[in-house]
Amino acid sequence: MQLSVAIKGEGMDSPTVVCRSNFKEPESYGSLLELSWRGSKPLTLGVGHTRTFLRDGDEVIIAGHCQGDGYRVGFGACEGKVLPARGS
């Protein structure tokens, strides 16, 4: 299985791929929590943009597929935007 995750922070022109995971390689992380070492190391998204956790207004794009001998099954880009909590 292949998975890629991209984040477009507020004010950024285009999304930045933060991880590509095949779930086989030890250094093939699949979440922002793993990439930022539980929020202790900021992840660079672009010029002047870093994240340890997602923020309100961030857009997240996830795409993935599974491939084998003679087949490939997957899904297109799944996109969403982080909204503020109700009552905030």
TrEMBL record:
EC number: 3.7.1.2
Necessary cofactors: Mg(2+); Ca(2+)
Catalytic reaction equation(s): 4-fumarylacetoacetate + H2O = acetoacetate + fumarate + H(+)
Pathway assignment: Amino-acid degradation; L-phenylalanine degradation; acetoacetate and fumarate from L-phenylalanine: step 6/6
Gene Ontology molecular functions: fumarylacetoacetase activity; metal ion binding
Keyword terms of this UniProt record: Calcium, Hydrolase, Magnesium, Metal-binding, Phenylalanine catabolism, Tyrosine catabolism
The keyword Metal-binding appears for this protein: yes
SUPFAM superfamilies recorded: FAH
InterPro entries found in the cross-reference section: Fumarylacetoacetase, Fumarylacetoacetase_C_sf
Family label: Belongs to the FAH family.
Protein name in UniProt: Fumarylacetoacetase
Lineage of source species: Eukaryota, Metazoa, Chordata, Craniata, Vertebrata
